[in-house]
Amino acid sequence: MATGATGRRGRSVREDVHHQPRFHHGRWRYGPEGHARNGSPDGLTYIHAEHDAIITDCTEQHASDGRIGIEHLHRTRPELAEEVSVKETLAMAEYTGAPVYFVHQSTPGAVDLVTEARERGQEAYSETCPHYLTLDDTVYGSAFPEWYACCPPMRSAETVAALKDRLAAGAIHTISSDHSCYDLSQKRERTDDVRYMPHGLPGVETRMPVSFTALVSEAGGSVEDFVEVFCRSRTDQCRSAQGRNRGGFRRRPGDLRSRRPANRRRRCAAHGN
User: Is the separation of the CB atoms in 93 and 100 below 8 Å?
Assistant: First the structure.
């Protein structure tokens, strides 16, 4: 990756089917501590922030009450779980001096924590996804709630409106897809229990048209701001984190490079949702 930007991605919840490492707040062997102290100071650490203990306890409480099907997903992963994890992660990033990038943030409170950290001088970034800007948790009461199985889940209409306000104010730096190619047949195998149901939405094909329709065509946002959160700001983030790289950052703004590891699982071979 000498001509691109390095980084690591992990979750603050327990390891899932994606086999991303869990960044335990007590021993961040793979997280910002690794970047700052173990020979890779030039990369971003990407965090899926949800507090494991809160989600585990909340999910088990719902299971004991018989409310563990997909229609209850949003209640098993509360907003507090995301915001507590963001707060803890920022503290560890500040301690280690590492830059941190929060993927698919779904609450204004989580975004505000990043904004406050940046005001203190930390290098931290907020990302969200089209579904958190265009859908709310009423989808779990629809005829096909399994279509919307993802984590974090969709939030209330009030939270969605506040998140869009943060985007309009420039507090959210990137809109990404968090693409996952589980198909509906896989999800429908365990709609009865979200603990065993695969989560994730396909978003590579729909990220741009859905967001452009919602943010530019309907909300009247500028094309320039749209390009900023879709492309340019992401390159600037990589450039900033890569600034300490001995080889420098030689790619042009907007350039992308996709790397497929040799041992990539075949889970996504048959995409269709």
Answer: yes
pLDDT digits over 134-171, tens only? Answer: 999 999 999 999 999 999 999 999 999 999 999 999 99
- Which tens digit of pLDDT belongs to each residue from 95-117? 999 999 999 999 999 999 999 99
- Alpha-carbon distance of 83 to 184, in angstroms, equals 30
Task: Name the pTM for this structure.
Answer: 0.79
DSSP class of residue 218 equals I
Query: Of 174, 238, 248, nearest to 5 (Cα)?
Result: 238
| Region of 136 on the Ramachandran plot (φ > 0 left; ψ -120 to 50 alpha; else beta) | beta
**pLDDT(3) > 90:** no
Contacts of 189 (CB under 8 A, 6+ apart): 197
| DSSP letter (8 states) at residue 211 | H
Closest CA to 272 of 199, 206, 170, 202: 202
Helices and strands, counts by H and E, the chain: 11, 5
Quickly list DSSP for 47-64. Answer: EE---HHHHHHHHHHHHH
Mean pLDDT for 159-184 is 94
Cβ atoms of 24 and 33 closer than 8 Å: no
Distance CA 87, CA 92 (A): 9
